[in-house]
């Protein structure tokens, strides 16, 4: 080992993986796209490709078993990986699941976890085809790989957005983040006094969005029926602002998005206000909604107009125009990966 | 969670995964084989399939950083997954690598790990196409998925062995296990007195087999050139006896293997004797050699006869004849997954 010591935090997750893999070269003609999008793309025939995505979930980092029931954890672990395949405009068909657990977990706990995994497999029509279980020194780690398939011409990359394309978000945003805030607050209350019953009343919707997010395979199927291939696509796992910036940077374009267009459920807004938070900030920066963000050509807009699951939130501009959020007063605010700066 | 508590140890690794996944059903016609072989098989066209295998390696369980340099760990993590694809008579083309590390590791440590991964990618001609890095609460976890491709008619399953087929082992066996014994002994010595220099002299071969095992892609290519498709195949990760039993149980056959035929390197034998161990016991029960075990039809034997990398060690018998090891005196001893019983 070299004598220099650089802390991991100094690069951030994306910087770190870029740094570690910059020396790697692809050697197989079947490898169409490697690291850098929601899923890798492997050619399987002249016209078809496979989408492959992998994720590791770690107890204490990505989930907390104090408020995450194991059944929900199993379901969510599958859903977020299926969502990565959706983000390429494809549908997952297979998954592998590897689990490492310390012996503090009895078999009954793993049965609950696998019950959630099985429920998600049924809902998303995916087959569990492999994986292993092993002992860990502490806690639980889950690693999932999802595999989907698509015509090559139907795959949507992050990099395909063009000037004047329309930005669409599915569902509503910020709910999963507010669900987490409610759960964290009740955990604090419980830790301070375990005799107090948790007060989750009226927060069912945001809690469910946090504990049991859904992958939008329905949207992928709908787009196929409508014969719309998004020019670019990503799933919203880290917050709307960060995902828009990923698309704009990969596509070398700018954007305008409009405050009043961002879809936020009334229950999310109420919870945000209850926590003295701005609902739009929660939608822009709160993660784990697993909704889809995509761009379509203007001529495709009539096909999806009025669909209750899809909301136009802005449009793509020239790269030199920058990435802007337009607030209710009409002021343009530059997008930032976390929050934004007025100028 | 139910009130019953059953300890994980009570089922064993294979029993546990069978138990947890017995409710799962396959729904996609592209899923040809799920859990139960070295890799899953997914149909990608009328004539071709993909082989997909996944593995999780956990610090303190599967590797010990006290004597496993990170570069070797990265190399080995790729090699063992490439080996799983070899075990289906195919060659890996892509891998994904996910890493979780605590912040006790500086970036320089991960650079070494990825250097080993990159070296293995070059040697085995595989492309790193995805994965992520994240924080762990303690230690290091590596999850790798390997993807290969093959004509459907060339895939060798564990279940295809037939009576009178010849059992072949590649390379030599027991070396990785003896390497582990040497490293463990020196670790004990070091722990007792850190001033004493490790005495690894004369053990280079067995240590290298433990720290830097190779996947036998050369054997897969060789079999292809010779136009030999093994009737059944597995890689030797848990010891020869256990792997033979997997093939026999999956194929519903018995076997005879011969003590004097088992390929053991002279350096492995010397180290075993030094440790008061029987070399054949080490070959039968010591894991991590990552050699291949396969069966071929008698009529294919002439094609591989005399090949220095492939040793015939026995033959397949009727299921009712049982699974036997024939010792030097000609006595038949029933094979056991760990050790064996005289009768």
Q: Can you describe what's shown?
A:
2 copies of one chain form a homodimer. Chain A contains 10 helices and 15 strands. By secondary structure, chain A is α+β, with helices and mostly antiparallel strands. The first copy, chain A, folds into 2 domains: 10-154, 2-Layer Sandwich (60s Ribosomal Protein L30, Chain: A), CATH 3.30.1330.10; 158-341, Alpha-Beta Complex (Phosphoribosyl-aminoimidazole Synthetase, Chain A, domain 2). In chain A, strands 9-11-8-12-10-13-14-15 form an 8-stranded mixed sheet, with helices on both faces. In chain A, strands 1, 2, 3, 4, 5, 6 and 7 form a 7-stranded mixed sheet that branches. The longest helix of chain A is centred in the middle third of the chain and has 18 residues, at 107-124. Chains A and B meet through α1, β3, β4, α3 and β5 of A and α1, β3, β4, α3 and β5 of B.
Topology (elements, then pairings):
Two copies of one chain form a homodimer.
Chain A: H1 12-21, E1 31-33, E2 40-43, E3 48-58, H2 70-86, E4 91-101, H3 107-124, E5 127-130, E6 133-135, E7 140-151, E8 166-170, H4 175-192, H5 204-211, H6 217-225, E9 232-236, H7 240-251, E10 254-258, H8 266-274, H9 279-285, E11 291-296, H10 301-304, E12 310-317, E13 323-326, E14 332-335, E15 340-341
Parallel strand pairs in A: 4-5, 4-6, 10-13
Antiparallel strand pairs in A: 1-2, 2-3, 3-7, 4-7, 8-11, 8-12, 9-11, 10-12, 13-14, 14-15
Helix pairs in contact in A: 2-3, 4-5, 4-8
